[in-house]
Design brief:
The protein has a single domain (17-199), classed as Rossmann fold, CATH 3.40.50. Helix content is 34%, strand content 17%. The chain contains eight helices and seven strands, in the order H-E-H-H-E-H-H-E-E-H-E-H-E-H-E. It has a five-stranded parallel sheet with strand order 1-7-6-2-3. The two termini are 21 Å apart. Residues 204-214 have low confidence and may be disordered.
Length: 214
């Protein structure tokens, strides 16, 4: 489980609380804040967390969703405020057909049920399939995610002025989450927090720019 100290924006674990600023932000997020307001993660994406998330994501072991969601609720208590709308990161319909479920939606459903929060499983739609982004350059990520996410028309009035908790299985470079946040803000969401099962720790040489874009 991920405990303090961690950055309140990117959820990255920190070696010492002395590395965090007055607002609980790491130096990178103080220089350039992510698109979302606050970020929380239940686990660091180590071997144990990786095994659980991949079993949920690719091996049809959906029972892991309830376990992960319980720890996500613990990690996100301060952002799962009354009246918040819980929204999963969507998958493209082609991937949904092959996988048969969206792991983020399974997590968000459990989280909303545990908290008694409103759940919006279909608030966002992914307009086209995308490729893995972790090794892309900034420009390539931006181009790949351009115009990918959209808020469905029937939710636009509901979002105005709301706090949204965006749920995903993991946070890597931030590109997917950023595209979702941009679409939610355009639809009028006031505050948007990110809640994930696992956060991938920063690795030397890996270009992770949360503002540019998982």
């Amino acid at each position: 489980m991920l405990g303090p100290p961690y950055c309140k924006a990117c959820a990255q674990p920190q070696a010492s609380s002395a590395l965090l600023g007055a607002d609980g932000l790491c130096a990178a997020c103080e220089r350039r804040h992510p698109a979302w307001d606050q970020g929380r993660a239940a686990f660091v994406y180590d071997a144990a967390a990786r095994d659980m998330i991949l079993r949920l994501k690719y091996a049809d072991q959906i029972d892991y969703a309830a376990f992960l969601a319980k720890h996500m609720v613990r990690a996100g208590q301060d952002v799962l405020v009354p009246g918040a709308l819980v929204v999963p990161v969507p998958v493209h319909r082609w991937r949904l057909l092959s996988r048969r479920y969206n792991q983020a939606a399974l997590l968000s459903r459990h989280i909303a049920r545990m908290q008694g929060s409103e759940h919006g499983p279909d608030v966002l739609e992914r307009l086209r399939a995308t490729v893995r982004l972790a090794r892309f350059s900034r420009g390539a990520r931006r181009q790949e995610m351009q115009g990918v996410m959209r808020v469905r028309a029937r939710w636009r009035g509901v979002l105005r002025g709301r706090t949204v908790v965006l749920v995903d299985d993991m946070l890597t470079t931030g590109a997917t989450a950023t595209a979702c946040v941009q679409a939610l803000r355009e639809a009028g969401a006031q505050k948007i927090h990110l809640l994930v099962a696992g956060v991938v720790p920063e690795r030397p040489g890996l270009d992770i720019d949360l503002q540019e874009m998982h």
